[in-house]
Amino acid sequence: MTPEIDEAVVRLPGMRVAYDGAPFDESALASTWTEQLQNWLSHAVSEGLAEPNAMVLATADAEGRPSSRTVLCKGLDDRGVVFYTNYTSAKSHDLTATRYASVTFPWYSLHRQVTVRGEVEKVAADETAAYWAQRPRGSQLGAWASPQSRVVDGRRALNNALRNIERRFADVEHIPAPPHWGGWRIRPDYVEFWQGREDRMHDRLRYHRTHDGWHVERLAP
Fold this sequence. Notes:
Blueprint: H1 7-10, H2 33-46, E1 54-60, E2 66-72, E3 75-77, E4 80-86, H3 90-98, E5 100-107, E6 112-122, H4 125-132, H5 137-145, H6 155-168, E7 181-195, E8 203-210, E9 213-219
């Protein structure tokens, strides 16, 4: 008996969106990748995109096996982009092994994306503490309770872990950051800005860092 096939899956080859973005030329670029990313991020925020600071993080383990997942950008300056996580998680094991990563901001409705690639470093403890203090209490408790990326024995185990942590910090006003939790910074050597255009002739402009500074390059779509 032939299994039922979802009609949407059958239509996959024909699924496409016509990109009609405005021309994106070298003359439109900001002087630095940081300013350009801040400009595009601000535009994504003003357009009301859901979680405009979401970025897809790609890592590889010591054997070169890749993984990807979505994280939230929580820092952006000339040093790079920052996200926070459990230092015992799978992603952190990958970053510790290879010291390299890539993230992509996928702003689908704007027909834009930005990819940042480079070496990684842990964020300083005082910087982590400053961000941690801004997190909702529930998120702080969850960071303590979750053995991120490890196999757990059902949802009940997670709920029990959270209840135990809630009891532990019930009388603590300011919960400290766990010693196994903190930030990673990607220090880019490559930042590409992608603008969708008609007939798939997209604009791809890249800031590329070399031994004598940053250079702007155009890539074929």
